[in-house]
Amino acid sequence: MLHTGDSAPGFDLSNQSGEQVSLDALLRRGPLVLYFYPADFTPGCTREACAFAALDPELQRHGLTIAGISPQNPDSHTRFRSQHGLPFTLLSDPVKEVIRLYGADGPLGFGVRRISYFIDTRRRIRAALRADFRIGAHERFVRRAMVLADSLR
């Protein structure tokens, strides 16, 4: 897992539409919450994504972008976003290259850890959280990130 003060590694991944999206492109809009999750359509990941979607109006007011990364393909992300009305970008990392770079690979390389990072526009990690089974902790993390985003203005 990366830590506060670390530089966020750059990447280019396919989004739900199959378009390439880079970390730098996401940061052009402002600070970013980048979260890693195990799989589309699982109960915990669905609860987490829906909690983040409910915060979208507040996120926009605070100038904060959110994006999720998991190993599923863009088609799966398209269905997941559509079924749950998710307004944010989902990125596909089927070979788990970026997942490993961010320390979100599961024990012994199996699965994906539930990790959230708050990244400023200079690609510095300002806050990080790993809480595999505590979905509510990630929602609280995003709420704290809104306050941090305001302090960067």
Fold blueprint:
Elements: E1 12-15, E2 20-22, H1 23-27, E3 32-36, H2 43-54, H3 56-61, E4 65-70, H4 74-84, E5 89-92, H5 97-101, E6 115-119, E7 125-130, H6 135-152
Helix pairs in contact: 2-6
Any overview of this molecule?
With 153 residues, the protein is an alpha/beta fold. The chain is built from 6 helices and 7 strands. It has a 7-stranded mixed sheet with strand order 2-1-5-4-3-6-7. Helix 2 (43-54) runs parallel beside helix 6. The mean pLDDT is 96.
Summary tags:
single chain; 153 residues; alpha/beta; seven-stranded mixed sheet; 37% helix; globular
Brief synopsis:
The relative contact order is 0.24. Strand 1 and strand 2 form a beta hairpin. The chain is 37% helix and 22% strand.
Judging from the principal axes of the Cα atoms, what is the shape?
globular
Query: Got a strand count?
Result: 7
Spell out the helices and strands N to C.
EEHEHHEHEHEEH
- C-alpha-based Rg, rounded: 14 Å
In which range does the helix fraction lie?
A: 25-40%
Helix count?
A: 6
Give start-end ranges of low-pLDDT stretches.
none
Biggest pleated-sheet summary: 7 strands, mixed
Mean pLDDT: 96
Quaternary organisation: single chain
User: For the terminal residues, how far apart are their CA atoms?
Assistant: 27 Å
Proportion of beta-strand residues: 15-25%
Q: Structural class, from secondary structure content?
A: alpha/beta
Strand order of the largest sheet: 2-1-5-4-3-6-7
